[in-house]
Amino acid sequence: EVDDSYFNPGRVAHGGVIFILADSAMGAAVHTLLEPGQRTVTAEIKINYIAPVTHGRVTASATVINKRKRLAVVTAEVHDEQGELVGVALGTFAIIAATALQQSES
């Protein structure tokens, strides 16, 4: 739910709000296709901000365009509560072994 606590100085939702929704939706979409023992991490995202958001619920949906052994390409659309498209993203997600994450944390 967007309110003024998410506003940038221009009095609209900061782009990071839209970005994190798109990133989360894309990561979740890739996650549904992973094998046991695999994890996914964001490698790259490009986002186009189409319309400002000033209030209300914002939702994101994502589609995996292509998934290979080590990378997935994903798109996301972000809509405001009236259903208006406010952002479109294209992302690349790395697919790694869960043990790779554990080793990097040590």
How do the strands line up in the largest sheet? Answer: 1-4-3-2
- Model regions low in confidence, pLDDT < 50 over at least 5 residues: none
| Helix fraction bin | 10-25%
Mean pLDDT level: 92
**In one word, what is the shape?**
elongated
Question: How would you describe this structure to a colleague?
Answer:
There is one protein chain. It contains two helices and four strands, in the order H-E-E-E-E-H. It is an alpha+beta fold and 106 residues long. A hairpin with a 3-residue loop joins strand 2 (59-67) and strand 3 (71-79). It has helices spanning 15-31, 98-105, and strands at residues 38-49, 59-67, 71-79, 85-97. The protein is 24% helix and 41% strand. 23% of the residues are buried. The protein has a four-stranded antiparallel β-sheet with strand order 1-4-3-2. The longest helix has 17 residues, at 15-31.
Short description:
The protein has 106 residues and is α+β, with helices and mostly antiparallel strands. The chain has 2 helices and 4 strands, in the order H-E-E-E-E-H. The chain has a 4-stranded antiparallel sheet.
